[in-house]
Amino acid sequence: MKVDKNKCIGCGACVSICPEIFELKDGKAVVKSKGECPDSVDACPVRAIIK
Ligand code: SF4
Fold first, then answer.
1. Hey, which of 4, 5, 9, 22 would you mutate to test ligand 1's pocket, going by the most ligand atoms within 8 Å of its Cβ?
2. Rounded to two decimals, what is the model's pTM?
């Protein structure tokens, strides 16, 4: 999983869905560990998450 920092608006949806993979840092989501979280791709309002 990857997060496009330029697109992320820090809504926290991905963190809510997969807290083991994403965390918020300085208002942006970052990937903290490897893994799959397909639901987050659709849940991101700005499509900032890349599989
Ligand atoms: S769901 Fe998308 S916009 Fe929201 S914090 Fe995650 S990457 Fe950023």
1. 9
2. 0.95
